[in-house]
Amino acid sequence: MKEMSLSLKNKILQSFIFSEEEKSILDEILSCELNYSRIGKIVSLIIDMKLDKSSCLAFLVYQYYKVKNNEGEELSKKLSPEEQEMFMDFKTIKDINRLTKSEEIEDIKRMFIVMSRDLRIVIIKLFGIYYDISILNNPLTEEQKLFVKQVKDIHVPLSERLGLDKLKQNLYDNVIRLEHPEEYTRLKRTIESEQEENSKQLELTKSKIQKILDEMNIKGEILSRIKHISSIFNKLHNKNLTLDQIYDILAMRVIVNSIEECYAVLGRIHGIYKPMIGRVKDYIANPKPNGYQSLHTTIIVENQHPLEVQIRTVEMNREAEYGVYSHWLYKEKKSKQDAFDQKMTWFRQTIDNAKNMSNEDFIETLKSDLYEGLLLVQTPMGKVLEFPAGSTIIDFAYAIHSDIGNRCVGAKINGQLKPFTTTLHNGDIVEIITNPHSKGPSRDWLKFVKTASARSKIKAFFKNELKDENVKLGKSMFTQAMIDRGFSSAQLFTTEILEQIFKKYNLESLEELFASIGSGSLTAAQVLSRFITFYNNENKQLPKLDNVVHLKRNKEGVLVDGDSGMMVRFARCCSPIEGDDIIGYISRGRGVTIHRTNCPNLAYLEKERLIDAQWQLKENASFTANIKVVAVKSDNNIGRLTNLITGLKINIRGFDAKDTGDNFLCTLVVDVKNKAELESAINAIRNMKNVTNVYRSER
User: Which end of the chain, N or C, is less surrounded by CB atoms within 10 Å?
Assistant: First the structure.
């Protein structure tokens, strides 16, 4: 452990210039028992991606905080204001990616909010996800399968959208390795069997291109690579190709200083190698929709196999390597910052949309948007906007402003009048025609729009502008549907059911629910089915003779605002135990929920509903707590650990152990009397042979 800590410290100090105070912070962090395997990998990626010292330091302090809690909070106060803000952002998005479905979506929402403030935080989160998936091995648990699917559906396309191609490929390689192990192994063996021949060919071609650069007196860099397995897998499946039909398994990149040099080098390469017909592509004159620029040609080399050559400038390569972050990384002039802002438009729109969408709608829209092709469209003034393929004039109008969309009656595309349902194409110049006397959008527009932003703004119009009408219409529609199914409002509109409905649809009242039905945001049948499901669930738990839930007085040993007679329950997100500093949150129809005062979820609760709470010591009270243990893999780890806990007279309620190759990972769920007993158990485990890390966790 000390060797790993020292090695990491040396690597950091070789990469960044630290002040003496910053070195003392680093020493304090690295004196702690941390997961150095994971942290070391992420720090290496931070350095490789050229993120700055502040990113590295804030990340390390957050890792220290996860183990030390209050001491970590105190240490964070020694950081610069920028680093303190980054530290708080790290706390906002959870570090654990194996969450319940609801928590997973909330975590992704928080990730997008943080992304709008500081892209570095999300890039580092993606590094952590890469490490987490890279250490998984088959067979997978159901929990791990869900995590791999989340990576495939969200984090792979998100990395691509950010322009982080190398990270995207590494993530996707691991997805293929875990979801299609047999084909992955077969492709890997095929590539490895040809590795010697391929390496010799790459060296030969590299030497010939270097000779061209020398003869032309061009200073450049030549890089070579063998295509990622995930890219080969995609081409085999998506384009129904055979391995022999994939022409870019081998590739070479030539990086020069100017566009003129790009074309000159291309011509000279074609002078010594024969290009394949149809495989010469000019993405400099005609960039891809995401802004990617490069010259591509596929040549037939000495071993009679195809080899792709990409030729680009230093700036083009930087954009391809670092994506949207490159503009931040190199602190470019204002014009370049405008380009960065354009690329970030989609993320900001996603954040705005998330506020007005249910979790299910948000995640499905996000997946759809991430996988859609992109197109770039201009205003008459030359402002470039980015849209998913299939977007219409209506999407364009709402992207400019809600009022423009609401008053849109048509548009000119490239100077010609077009109806507002017309689909846009890459490079179109669009001028929106508005009418100040327009009555607003039609509900039919929802059938034509492609972007979540336009859809949410149209729904907002009906919700806000026609609210009274929508409430009456929605109430009538729901009442009729309810009567048709044989239910009454007395049965369905209980406090418990309404609380679940409001949470499900992110609403605050019945009026909002009826307005959503009336505006078409929700259907009466859809909402009624959910009501009936909750009603049936509640009925299974209710007494036979009546429909009243009798609340018992508080027997949990907690005083809420000085009163021990209130019903309380303990939050599962932070699992408070006697000895923790606590606070209460008044829940609708569910009494008071007790949280630890340092629970990160408090940031998302309504402040006015927080209430003082403190422990009222009681005999024979017990609390549930989670202990995470990391140990070097060895025989009988489980036996020694369980014997130790039972020897301390502590009851084990749950146990989950995983073998990750070199390490043994274990989660213990135990019953303890108080925080002191829990800390005693943690200290005892820490002194066990082979244990490298142990700490209390929220889950």
Answer: N
